[in-house]
Amino acid sequence: MQRVNFSVEGYQLDFEQAKETGRLIAEKENEFATLVSWCDREKGKHSPCCLKCEFEGEAAWEVYGRNHEGRLRISFDDDRFVFIYS
User: Fold this and answer.
1) What whole-number distance in Å separates Cα of residue 4 and Cα of residue 24?
2) DSSP 69
3) Nearest to residue 34, comparing CAs of 79, 76, 65, 77?
4) Residue 29's pLDDT is what?
5) How many CB atoms are closer than 10 A to CB 52?
6) Residues 6 or more apart in contact with residue 44 via CB below 8 angstroms
7) How many Å apart are CA 86 and CA 30, to the nearest integer?
8) pLDDT tier at 58 (50, 70, 90 boundaries)?
9) What's the average model confidence in pLDDT over 63-69?
10) Given a cut of 60, is residue 42 above it in pLDDT?
11) 3-state DSSP call for residue 18?
12) Alpha-carbon distance 73 to 69, whole Å?
């Protein structure tokens, strides 16, 4: 999986702004890119939301994204917001 990391300084990026930026990046090389999983560590939310929060030491939402054709992992501010796209 390709990883893209952004560090934003001087501006407080919110979840929706990060999500839209991630979408634009994901669709640049694949107009049919689909958001497979995501995490908002700031609010303690993620999708898919699983009963079992970890799988062999990894967050279940991240394992899900990787195992469901995730090809691109976009992270903002040291994983404050993470989006995995197919």
Assistant:
1) 13
2) T
3) 65
4) 80
5) 7
6) none
7) 9
8) confident
9) 88
10) yes
11) helix
12) 11
Q: Tokens in use for 7?
A: 């560090």
End-to-end CA distance of the chain: 10
Give the pair of three-digit tokens for residue 11.
């501006």
SS3 of the chain: helix, strand, coil, percent, to 5: 25, 35, 40
Tokens of 82: 């993470």
Enumerate residues 6+ apart whose C-beta is below 8 A from 77.
Answer: 6, 7, 8, 13
| Contact indicator for 37, 61 with CB cutoff of 8 Å | yes
Give the span between the Cα atoms of 67 and 25, in whole angstroms. 21
> Which domains are assigned to the chain?
2-85 (3.30.1490.340)
Question: What is the distance between the alpha carbons of residues 74 and 19, in angstroms, rounded to a whole number?
Answer: 9
Q: What is the mean pLDDT of residues 18-38?
A: 93
- What pLDDT is stored for residue 21 in this prediction? 95
